[in-house]
Amino acid sequence: MLRVLQLIHEGLVKNEKSTKRDLYYKDAKLFRSQSVVDELVDDIAFTFSVARSALNVTAASKGLVAGGLTIHKKNGAIDDCSDFPEGLLIPNVADIKTLEINADYVLVIEKEASFQSLCLERFHSHPEIGNAILITLRPIPTREFLRLLANSTTLSQSAYTRSTPIFCLVDNDPHGFEIFSTYKFGSKSLAHENRNLTLPSLQWIGVFAKDFDGVKNGLDGYMPLTIRDRQKATSLLQNSWLDGEIEMKSDLCRMLFVGMKAEIQAMCEANKGGLVGYLVDKIREKREM
């Protein structure tokens, strides 16, 4: 603990920013594990009731972004995400001056393989459902970036986008639902930061258990739940936020009853139009609601 406090103090005095990974490598023999540093930094931030950024400690850049977004950085650099066909690595929020949105919606995708597939299909400029910003979790991008995105002004002329809706595509399994809940309702481990990080407007767009109803050999695409899956599902069901996510709660109960889960890739195989066709249908449904 004292060593981490010392490193944080040095960074504050010198006004230098570090990632948790940077702190770990400054004394790897002492810390032995990255998780030790992660927990200590979070505990220190919680103790002082401040965000990690106030300690000049940031999470490492995670996740990719593509589509109708231009990132203006404080150093004067400008990144047009549409110029990166395979996605741009999400920068640290501390380095961002403003975000310029030219999209009708944002789609957050759990799996990088699905993200790359959509980029290859140029889904972010689909002629039927408009321009999009695609973001992948690797495994979890900084929530600060999504919060900044949600609060940024859109240049889209679509009447649909008085504010830019943010959709989330995750596996139909306890881990995917936990990721969704972290973005929308916050993280228990960073409870003191949740007020500035949650995305109450985040909308679950799939994958749903009902998507497999009527599919030939109904259990095709499903996999058995592991013991850990069951434990996580049971834990999630104890959260009060699920009362507002009725379909997700129903799917969790169904998982535990049938002992099966489904991934995004399985939906691609079950849907005639693949992942693109699936998402086009789901986004249209959201617009009609």
Give an account of the 3D structure.
- The active site is at 25 (o-(5'-phospho-dna)-tyrosine intermediate).
- It catalyses: ATP-dependent breakage, passage and rejoining of double-stranded DNA.
- Its cofactor is Mg(2+).
- This protein has 289 residues and is α/β, with parallel strands linked by helices.
- The chain folds into 2 domains: 2-58, Winged helix-like DNA-binding domain superfamily/Winged helix DNA-binding domain (Arc Repressor Mutant, subunit A), CATH 1.10.10.10; 64-288, Dna Topoisomerase Vi A Subunit, Chain: A, domain 2 (3-Layer(aba) Sandwich), CATH 3.40.1360.10.
- Helix content is 39%, strand content 18%.
- The protein has 11 helices and 14 strands.
- The protein has helices at 2-14, 20-26, 28-31, 34-47, 112-120, 143-150, 174-185, 227-236, 246-258, 264-270, 274-288, and strands at residues 18-19, 57-58, 64-67, 69-73, 78-80, 88-89, 96-101, 105-109, 125-126, 130-136, 166-169, 203-206, 222-224, 260-262.
- Strands 3, 6, 8, 9, 10, 11 and 12 form a 7-stranded mixed sheet that branches. A 3-stranded antiparallel sheet has the order 5-4-7, with no helix packed on it. A two-stranded parallel ribbon has the order 1-2.
- Strand 9 (125-126) and strand 10 (130-136) form a beta hairpin.
- Helix 2 (20-26) crosses helix 4 (34-47), helix 8 packs antiparallel against helix 9 and helix 10 crosses helix 11.
- The chain is globular.
- The model has no long low-confidence stretch (mean pLDDT 82).
